[in-house]
Amino acid sequence: MTVQRVFRYLHGEMTAVEVYNFVTNGGANDFVEVAAILDRHGPWCLSGGLAVNCYVEPVYTVDAHVIVIAENLGAIEDELVAPGFSISEFPHSMNAKKIKSKLNCRERFGPGAIARED
After folding, report:
1. Could you give the CA distance from residue 62 to residue 49 in angstroms, rounded to a whole number?
2. Which residues make beta-bridge pairs with 45?
3. What's the CATH fold of domain 16-108?
4. Rounded CA gap, 104 and 48, in Å?
């Protein structure tokens, strides 16, 4: 992190993407990569705080929640692992995260995927 970048952050001179990357240690770039992978595997839906940001003053969260079709999960997982995402599996969800990033992507699938969040 450079002094100039910190100065721009403190004085509100950064773009929304620059601020998000600053807060999440590259999370915006990681999310773009995840979204491109999800786009290749059928419909998906952004939920949670990042989805709400489309309608309100942005809040910078390190969690990205998405809902995917369960049948596509294996292929999505394979594509996430290839560029360096680590995967943690749970009942009805899977977390993907790059080692240096603070962004946590949670893919939900199966029963109750829309009705509840952990």
Report:
1. 9
2. 67
3. Beta Polymerase; domain 2 (3.30.460)
4. 12
